[in-house]
Design a protein that fits this description.
The chain is α+β, with helices and mostly antiparallel strands. It contains 6 helices and 7 strands; from the N terminus they run H-E-E-H-H-H-E-E-E-H-E-E-H. The chain has a 5-stranded antiparallel β-sheet with strand order 2-1-5-4-3, sandwiched between helices. A two-stranded antiparallel sheet has the order 6-7.
């Protein structure tokens, strides 16, 4: 009867070949690139000399750049980006500040001339405590920014209607204490703005 167990491996039979250092570095770099491409943010990394060492497709798409456009140094790429920013001089000043003080971090909201809004976060890249370059991160917040602006505009329209109405309009708590009253209401009831908190609506109709 045959023994189904596998035959023992000979002692001199070679096992899997160990990875070479070059293979490990290649896999590490491939993993890093895959991570960069998987994020929704635009990323660019430059060394201390200003050479762009890493970037992702999202960065190029956000700034309308082609792969060949990334062959220049960090300052040239950021200058091209600054040309599309509404407050371009302020952005250029920030770039100069970070170049002069490589240990600083920054956060800015950039409104672009074509209507997009990006958050820009820049920080030094460190290796073993030593600054080796700079990381630039750009996040598209156009939708959020637009919603916040629409809310502010809606609140401003309401406030104008409230303030400029010729009809008396006021707000009270559940217990009748005044929270706010427009000029027409204050004039009608003879209430000063400073006295609103001491007035109850039931006192006005007795």
């Amino acid at each position: 009867m045959n023994d189904p167990s596998p035959a023992p491996r000979a002692e001199n039979q070679p096992g899997p070949a160990p990875d070479s250092g070059e293979d490990a570095r290649s896999r590490s770099l491939a993993l890093l690139r895959a991570t960069l491409e998987s994020t929704g943010d635009g990323l660019m990394v430059a060394d201390r000399a200003g050479r762009v060492v890493l970037h992702n497709r999202r960065f190029r798409a956000m700034w309308n750049l082609e792969e060949d456009d990334m062959a220049v140094d960090e300052s040239a790429i950021l200058e091209r980006a600054a040309e599309g920013v509404c407050e371009s001089d302020a952005f250029r000043a920030r770039i100069r500040e970070l170049a002069e003080h490589p240990d600083r971090t920054s956060f800015d909201t950039l409104e672009l001339r074509d209507g997009w809004v990006f958050e820009c976060y820049s920080r030094p890249q460190r290796l073993g405590g030593e600054i080796t370059g700079r990381v630039w991160t750009f996040r598209d917040v156009t939708a959020t920014h637009g919603a916040q602006r629409a809310l502010r505009e809606s609140e401003e329209r309401y406030r104008r209607l409230f303030t400029e109405s010729r009809h008396a309009v006021y707000l009270t708590r559940a217990d009748g204490v005044f929270l706010d009253a427009n000029p027409a209401a204050r004039s009608l009831f003879g209430i000063d703005t400073d006295d609103l908190a001491s007035v109850q609506s039931r006192d006005l109709y007795v």
